[in-house]
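Hi U.,

Before I forget, here's the chain from the pilot set. I'm dumping it here mostly so it's searchable later in email.
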Amino acid sequence: MSVMTELQNVRSSPKSSGSKRDRVAYVFLIPWLIGLVGITLGPMLASLILAFTDYNLLQAPQFIGLDNFIEMASDKRLANSLQVTFTYVFVSVPLQLIIALLVAVLLDRGLRGLSIYRSIFYLPSLLGSSVAVAILWRQMFGADGLVNQLLAFVGIHDAPGWVTDPSTALGTIILLNVWTFGAPMIIFVAGLRQIPEMYYEAAEIDGAGRWTRFRRITLPLLSPIVFFNLVLQLIGAFQSFTQAFVVSGGNGGPADSTMFYSLYLYQQGFNQFNMGYAAALAWLLFVIIGAFTAINFIASKYWVFYDN
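Structure:
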């Protein structure tokens, strides 16, 4: 029986059993269930098994127990990639959210052409993770790039090559991530629109200034949105790959200063064909992201305010 026939039967009989409606729902869910099993759960299970093997794509996997995880403890490049990734996450995510919130507050003041401003600010979020923008970023911050040309124009001639200097290379990628503040900004704007105006009016009558109204009304009522954006951006930042891969030319340089965790995982799997070790690294990343997400949910009890 076709799906349309099932739907017609359900509509024609108001007292149709719940099981009939359930069958229709399951039919529509089949493509999603196939994707969940075939694209998500299946590969996850396969990588979990491979994490306990020595596998190089050319020979059959050899079971080695916990050796891959033990090897991690003495892997200095892994330790460096963790340090680079944590620096990137804990610097870029707060900066990105702060700028997104400030811009959202400014846009919430009823400016003319608000939709145009929102589109302009949102555009970098669509392009920021693309290969094209990463290439553009590398050209802009190169030794002869646009940034150094502008600095030379104002009399600064000894500026470094920002993406080729180990002390500044990571900073340029952090700046690229901060620049893509459009997505959290749009969510902040939507949240600000949900705060009742009467709270601000009552506070203004009581003599509260702008900063006090922002601190006492906006931030507490917007805290669920801040929490949502924080979790979302944190998970995304831990998985950052494209910017570091393109800007560094795929090697995490200079001097491993942009060796992100996901880039190191890619190198292990697809450059050195050490698939077993790469699978173990993937599961370590999964645990790290899960742990920080859990910490955020636990901590949210102390600073996120829900109206109900």
